[in-house]
Amino acid sequence: MINQRLPSFAAVLLAAAICFGCQSRSDGQADHPVLKVSLEECSVSLSDLFERAKLVPLATTEEALFAQADKIEILHDTIFLFDRSSRALHIFAPDGDPIRSIRKIGRGPGEYTTVSDFTIDPGQRTVLLLDPTGRLLEYGFDGTFLRERSLPRPPMNCRFVEWLTPNSCVTWSSVYETEQDAVRVLDRENRIRHSAFPHSSLWGSLCYGSVFNRYRDTVYYHESLSGRVYAITPDRCRIAYEWDPGIRPIDPGRLVVDKNALAAAQQQFFADYRDGTIPFFFGPQLQSERYYYTLLTFSQPTPVRKSLFYDRTTGESRLFAKTKEGLALDLKYMTDDYAVGLVDFSDREALKELVSREEALLLDRMREGDNPWTVKYMFK
């Protein structure tokens, strides 16, 4: 049977308290911001959102060459860029010059055959690379291998990690186990402080970008078929805010199936997404003092990703695939002052109106085949 649904009362419980420790009011009133947004596209210029843009030309060298940026973190203006396909973490100076790349492929100490994510421990000045088989490999900023941590098992297929506090981190696994949780908070001794959210590789296959993001000192978690975004601490989680586009991507009751029905349910999810029954799913969740941001992936009428901004001050939302200038904003990182995206050779003309004259001339020297450049979009 493809869709084995929970009884209706269980589905309601799942939707209302999808993880233990996540708080909600019993009177039905939301105790968190609900962002009412429109799914009707609008015309948006870069200058509607940003005051200016600052280019960081990432140098193209053999060691620092990357195919894509699956994750970007910035610490003291140093850029950490993770390319999952090449299994490498590239570290660039604030001006875009390469500092070093961590790419330790092999089976010896400090090496890996595959890697799915990374995070920064700023206090220790180290980076943690996540091996999906259940290892955390810790390296100094100079690339020196320091130590290996084995994550508690089960589960396997650990896909995302985020540094939480000086003594803890949080991981997410897409393995479906009815008695295991997807999100686990671990201390430095790899003991589970607490866990939350039932495992589901159902929606894990409809996922773009990390399920975690950090804003100021808080780590947030989201699921791609739910509009809710949760704040994670070492001891609990809570609903931080919720997108309300007027429709749900999916009935929450469909997210729990018997393990024996998993393969058929996964196939049905893909089919439902392709034909528009699942109209969209949520991507990365970012914040600034003024905006909430997410990226919605649609399949109909043609596959496309659309940026969605919600203005905290006005309550207005903007949904668009490209700006008037023809630029698709696939933002990777955000602070109160700026957002970070990438531009490649084909984006040069679209960006010229928002950069300085000197940087516009710099764009003219960009060559096809160069690494994409990071752009800091400065908020108004």
Task: Describe, in plain words, how this protein is organized in 3D.
There is one protein chain. The protein has one domain: Beta Barrel (Lipocalin), CATH 2.40.128. The protein has 380 residues and is mainly beta. The strands form six sheets. It has a five-stranded mixed beta sheet, with no helix packed on it. Strands 2-25-24-23 form a four-stranded antiparallel beta sheet. The protein is globular, with a radius of gyration of 21 Å. It has six helices and 25 strands.
Provide a short characterization of the protein structure.
The protein has 380 residues and is mainly β. The chain has helices at residues 8-16, 46-49, 201-204, 262-274, 348-351, 357-364; strands spanning 34-36, 50-56, 71-75, 78-83, 88-92, 98-102, 117-121, 126-131, 135-140, 145-150, 158-165, 168-173, 181-187, 192-198, 212-215, 218-222, 228-232, 237-244, 280-287, 291-298, 304-311, 317-320, 333-334, 338-343, 373-379.
SSE order and pairing:
Elements: H1 8-16, E1 34-36, H2 46-49, E2 50-56, E3 71-75, E4 78-83, E5 88-92, E6 98-102, E7 117-121, E8 126-131, E9 135-140, E10 145-150, E11 158-165, E12 168-173, E13 181-187, E14 192-198, H3 201-204, E15 212-215, E16 218-222, E17 228-232, E18 237-244, H4 262-274, E19 280-287, E20 291-298, E21 304-311, E22 317-320, E23 333-334, E24 338-343, H5 348-351, H6 357-364, E25 373-379
Parallel strand pairs: 1-18
Antiparallel strand pairs: 2-25, 3-4, 4-5, 5-6, 7-8, 8-9, 9-10, 11-12, 12-13, 13-14, 15-16, 16-17, 17-18, 19-20, 20-21, 21-22, 23-24, 24-25
